[in-house]
Specification:
- The structure holds two protein chains of two kinds.
- By secondary structure, chain A is an alpha/beta fold.
- Chain A is 37% helix and 15% strand.
- Among the domains of chain A are: 266-400, Flavocytochrome C3, Chain A, domain 1 (Alpha-Beta Complex), CATH 3.90.700.10; 477-620, Up-down Bundle (Methane Monooxygenase Hydroxylase, Chain G, domain 1), CATH 1.20.58.
- In chain A, helix 4 packs across helix 5 (110-130), helix 5 crosses helix 12 (440-463) and helix 10 runs antiparallel to helix 11.
- Helix content of chain B is 32%, strand content 11%.
- In chain B, strand 3 and strand 4 (73-74) form a beta hairpin.
- In chain B, helix 3 packs antiparallel against helix 5 (175-187).
- The N and C termini of chain B lie far apart (43 Å).
- The relative contact order of chain B is 0.13.
- Classes of the chains: A alpha/beta, B alpha+beta.
- The interface between A and B is large, with 89 and 84 residues.
Chain lengths: 637, 266
């Protein structure tokens, strides 16, 4: 398949203006005649639904949680980037663009990233106007901090709850449209299939999670903003409910899945403590600004940290990366933590942890300053681990945090199915092979507030979707198919729980397709996943019925999809014979163990098409061109 | 450690509920309360019994999904902590914990420990926002806001909408929740143009949903996982008083509460 990204010709800084001018508009009186479906109510979904409602469209918004305010955007801690240059420290739209392309290890699309940087400044204005309580200076102006190793201070934040405050801003805008009758909200409702009619996305099949009832919803376009797929690893920093079902169903209906193996592993999470562990908790990476990371020099050193003298400690990041030290990017910090633990020098009862030590900073700055900077985080750490981080070094370990891959979209955020648009973490477009800190919130809101309102209008005017209703045979067939799948799951009545399959899948993925990957491991993983999937469909047990609230059944459907997506992730990782960003193939590294990109052969987006249940997916390539940010080796030595 | 969990089981709103006791012999003190329920649910599922339904999502104490009464205290005995972050080491070997859903007329039961909190969404629909559409905004720094005001607004905005305040209140009032939003927006200059009307409408909606009135008992503040200050109750009353005086000739229409999940009700 030839993939047309529809990037406007001409200079990159005018591309979005050009595109907006060329796009056709919907007559204001006609907007209310169009129904649009938005799946997901996080930053991307809520901002899209609210804005489309404001414009006069008739919007249906779906979320599986009890309220749109629960979406996992709420958990983002650090902040949101914007090229405001309020600090007069040399930031610009071009610099944010350049940093994002470079941080993504030159595997993202330049024009999309440039537009993201342009939109960033308007996002802040919008959120301030909504009443988002950003941190302020005493004089009343907005405060910024440097984040994720950036050399300028461009991150706006609201304590350690930036995601929460931005989401509540979007949620309130959404509820305003609900009150105005423009948006109809469907909470506790999960999308189970995409309805494609005459090659166009025309609706969804959804299940009410309380009554179990399946319904058809027809619309003129469908917008997926359903988040990432990090939970394929079972343990991640994602919410327990975060799932890939909406995008995976759309993939099976014809939307290409791009760069699935680009997953981000966050270096500073609280380590796993036992088999019962249900999720991993992030500790903001801002801690690396003042914390020193170390492990004992000696293998299997069981002494408590205060008994290990200075000369027997290995501050491995400072040793290997003298110029960036503890502030190396996320992928580099994570890989190094794994390496020292693999050598048998990890700490804690499981041996899978490294110390993040604030002692030196406490001596230098005083305990008061550290409490002021990180008090909330350190309290949370103490609550979970029962250890006092002011006295004992914190234990941290990397965890799956974000997925850069997702459904392939063009410059209009439209997938390969006309009328199906994909926003936020659910699409692949802006972060390449590694996402920079404080950029996910920016992308979600840029897509929802400032891009989709234009591009969806253009689609409606040029494509003029025909009028149809739920009696259409394709819609009925999708409804029937979704019902049969649920019935089949409930009828297996095997011996193993849904969670036990999910945990096993997660272990396979983490061991063979986690922080570092190699061909042997990936081939193994593919075999194991196929076998596990087969066992799942014969031996899973789902108590209860399909006609009331049944959380096991909800999870079973999602895990069944993860069991297919997991295989695709491994296939993609195996196909990409290079190391870039979060994708580290052990076979492709420099002599000193750093990631080695292969621009000659792999400077493309790998977009996979679904070809059937037991058939190998087909690879389509979208070549990447870099006319502005020239590919270079990332070096943090 | 060994624990007995006595849990409210109820299939749906129409069914009769009852307490069922479960013994857990191998509780790791490092587990969270929800992980403890996960373990119980795995055991129940393996035996073919229906697991205990409970709401949860982020498990980091920020999404507001989780919450139930633990032996009579909303979110359990540890202050400023949601049940997802409450570790079992705060209980003693041999303890019996009684888990019940939030009990409130305005939170109809869905199943076991899950209740329907859409009434809180409707309170926000009744004006819990600044009426600004996308695009129509000045530069972020065009409106200076002093740090003290921004900080106080943030304190109020930290509410996660879990509903513990309602469950803990002897009157079943949602005043802490409603007041937090009224205070957050009412403190900021962006919220001034609609300040009066917002308070009047949100309070009217709170009443229409059947939440009780606030009599400043303070149980809500004691259980609030985000430690929302009782200051927001005073601000709500102030704005409501001023607003209802200024708008004394106007009418206020509340949104009709919806209880069920039928095709026309969702």
């Amino acid at each position: 398949m030839r993939l047309d990204a529809k990037i406007p010709a001409g200079p990159i800084d005018q591309a979005w203006d050009t595109a907006r001018f060329e796009m056709k508009l919907v007559n204001p009186a006609n907007k209310r005649r169009h129904t649009l479906i938005v799946v997901g109510s996080g930053l991307a979904g809520a901002s899209a639904a609210a804005t489309l409602g404001e414009l006069g469209y008739n919007v249906f918004c779906f979320c599986f949680q009890d309220s749109p305010r629960r979406a996992h955007s709420i958990a983002a801690q650090g902040g949101i980037n914007a090229a405001k240059n309020y600090q007069n420290d040399g930031d610009s739209i071009y610099r944010l663009f350049y940093d994002t392309v470079k941080g993504g290890d030159f595997r993202s699309r330049e024009a999309n990233v440039y537009r993201l940087a342009q939109n960033s400044v308007r996002i802040i204005d919008q959120c301030v106007a909504q009443g988002v309580p950003f941190a302020r200076e005493y004089g009343g102006s907005l405060e910024n901090r440097s984040f994720g190793g950036a050399q300028v201070s461009r991150t706006f934040y609201a304590r350690g709850q930036t995601g929460q405050q931005l989401l509540l801003g979007a949620y309130q805008a959404l509820e305003r449209q609900v009150d105005a009758g423009q948006v109809k909200m469907f909470p506790r409702t999960e999308m189970l299939d995409l309805i494609v009619i005459d090659g166009r996305a025309r609706g969804i099949v959804a299940r009410n999670l309380v009554t179990g009832r399946l319904t058809i919803h027809i619309a003129d376009a469908v917008i997926l903003a359903s988040g990432g797929y990090g939970n394929v690893y079972y343990l991640s920093t994602n919410a327990k409910g975060s799932n890939a079902t909406a995008i995976w169903r759309a993939h099976k209906r014809g939307a290409l899945f791009a760069n699935p193996c680009f997953t981000q592993i966050h270096p500073t999470c609280i380590p796993v403590s036992g088999d019962y562990q249900s999720k991993l908790t992030l500790m903001s990476e801002s801690l690396r600004n003042d914390g020193r990371i170390w492990v004992p020099k000696r293998k299997g050193d069981g002494r408590s940290p205060d008994q290990i003298p200075e000369e027997e400690r290995d501050y491995y990041l400072e040793r290997r990366y003298p110029s960036f030290g503890n502030l190396v990017p996320r992928d580099v910090a994570s890989r190094n933590a794994k390496a020292v633990c693999d050598e048998g020098r990890g700490v804690g009862t499981t041996g899978l942890g490294v110390y993040l030590d604030l002692a030196e900073a406490i001596t230098r700055l005083g305990v008061g300053t550290i409490r002021e900077r990180y008090g909330n985080l350190l309290d949370m750490y103490q609550r979970i681990t029962d250890e006092d981080p002011y006295k004992v070094p914190m234990r941290i370990y990397p965890a799956i945090h974000y997925t850069m891959g997702g459904l392939w979209v063009d410059y209009h955020l439209q997938s390969t199915i006309p009328g199906l648009f994909v926003l936020g973490e659910a699409n692949f477009s802006d972060h390449g092979a590694n996402r920079l800190g404080a950029s996910a919130l920016m992308q979600g809101l840029s897509d929802g507030y400032f891009i989709i309102p234009y591009t969806v209008g253009n689609y409606l005017t040029t494509e003029k979707p025909m009028k149809l209703d739920e009696s259409h045979p394709e819609a009925q067939a999708a409804l029937k198919g979704a019902g049969q799948r649920l019935k089949r799951l409930l009828e297996i009545k095997g011996k193993r729980t849904v969670d036990s399959f999910h945990r096993e899948l997660g272990k396979i993925m983490w061991n063979d397709c986690g922080m570092s990957r190699n061909a042997t491991g990936l081939n193994n993983a593919i075999g194991q996943i196929c076998a596990l999937r087969e066992e799942f469909w014969q031996n899973v047990t789902i108590p209860g019925s399909g006609d009331d609230l049944n959380q096991s059944l909800e999870r079973a459907g999602r895990v069944a999809d993860f069991l297919e997506l997991g295989e695709l992730i491994c296939i993609d990782a195996l196909e990409r014979n290079e190391s870039c960003g979060g994708h580290f193939r052990e076979e492709y590294q420099t002599t000193d163990g750093e990631a080695q990109r292969n621009d000659e052969n792999y400077s493309y987006v790998a977009a996979w098409s679904y070809t059937g249940a037991d058939s190998r997916p087909e690879l389509n390539r979208e070549p990447l061109a870099f006319a502005y940010a020239h590919p270079s080796q990332r070096s943090y030595k | 450690m060994k624990l007995t969990l006595t849990i409210w089981r109820q299939r749906d709103r129409a069914a009769k509920g009852r307490f069922v006791s479960y013994r857990l012999d191998d509780v790791n003190p490092e587990m969270s309360m929800l992980e403890c329920l996960d373990v119980l649910n795995e055991n129940l599922s393996e035996r073919g019994e229906e697991p205990v339904a409970f709401e949860h999502d982020c498990r980091e104490g920020i999404c507001g999904s989780c919450g139930f009464m633990i032996s009579g205290i909303a979110h359990g005995p540890l202050p400023a902590t949601t049940v997802c972050q409450l570790t079992m080491r705060h209980f003693k070997d041999g303890d019996e914990l009684v888990l019940e859903p939030w009990r409130s007329k305005s939170f109809p039961l869905v199943k076991d420990l899950i209740v329907d909190r859409r009434s809180l969404d409707r309170i926000v629909q009744a004006g819990g926002y600044v009426s600004v559409s996308t695009g129509n905004t000045p530069d972020g720094n065009a409106l200076p806001i002093g740090k003290d005001i921004a900080d106080r607004a943030m304190d109020a905005a930290a509410c996660i909408g879990c509903g513990a305040c309602v469950a803990a209140c002897p009157n079943g009032s949602a005043a802490l929740f409603t007041g937090a939003k009224i205070a957050h927006l009412g403190l900021l200059p962006q919220g001034q143009p609609e300040r009066d009307e917002r308070a009047v409408r949100m309070v009217a909606q709170m009443n229409a949903e059947g939440f009780g009135g606030c009599t400043n008992i303070g149980e809500c503040v004691a259980v609030c996982p985000k430690q929302i200050s009782p200051e927001v109750l005073a601000r709500m009353n102030l704005d409501y008083l001023v607003g209802s005086w200024k708008h004394r000739h106007g009418t206020v229409t509340a949104i009709s509460p919806i209880i069920g999940w039928g095709p026309d009700e969702t």
